[in-house]
Automatic annotation (TrEMBL):
CDD domains given in the database record: M23_peptidase
Record keywords, A-Z: Membrane, Transmembrane, Transmembrane helix
Lineage of the organism: Bacteria, Candidatus Woeseibacteriota
InterPro entries: Dup_hybrid_motif
Protein name stated in the entry: Peptidase M23 domain-containing protein
Organism the protein comes from: Candidatus Woesebacteria bacterium RIFCSPHIGHO2_12_FULL_41_24
Transmembrane segments: 47-68
Domain of life: Bacteria
Amino acid sequence: MLRNLIVMAMALEVYQMTSKFFSSKLRAKSCIVGLMLQKALPAGRRGFGSILLIVIILGAFALGFFLLKSVAKYSSRNYGSQQVLNPDEPPLKLKTIGVNFEDFKFTKQKLQFDRLFMEYGFVIPAGNSSTGQDKPNPQPTFVVPLGTSIRSIVDGIVVAIPTLWSGDFSVQVTQDGKMQKWIYEMEHVINPKVKVGEKVTAGQVVGEVSDFNHGAPVGFGATEIGILKGGQAPEHVCPFAYLDDSIREETFTNLGNLLKAWEEYIGDQKLYDESLTIPGCLTLNPIEG
């Protein structure tokens, strides 16, 4: 008799737990089992085996529910992560543009092409290009004072810091620290502040602007940012087309204000094209190199 009472108490406890945690539809089903149990208890006609069977059924029902819920949650999360992957687009979005807008300083000194900023796709004349031919600029270029901090444009891991033809460095970052199809570049950097294999966050200082650009005035240097797509013929895409949602609108507004203010400063209102679909991108086509 005592054994039956103990088992009945256990059965009631399991029933209360299932009723508490199940959704409305499942609770309705558990109530049916509960009614069976309550009907069995006062009658006192069910033996130990019957009561134990009900306990097992309720326990299995509860366990199955929680297992199914966990699997569904995992599958949903896994499916969602797969949805974002697209091999034809960079996996990381830019959270900075490599410099801060307050880093730009206006000067009356002569600037190459009269610009503090050269857009992606800006055609560098043959006499000034490294190839000796007209060349579309594959990496947006910023002219800023020497000593300006250059910042990582994405969250990732430093994969390489090669020395460039100009004697300075390119800090290259990928999603996982391995050479991948997509590489994020901060080029023409001196005094690197990071090492290969180091994890970096967007906005973290990775070095200083280089003085390689002989066309920059005294006290100024140039730096570039890029998104390199590897392959048989490596090419770049426009970084401004891949800004993170958290900075996109603010960056476009600040860039527009900077360029307009510079045009007013030098007295040339037609220096930059303000009708671009994506500011900073004179073209959205990939550029080889």
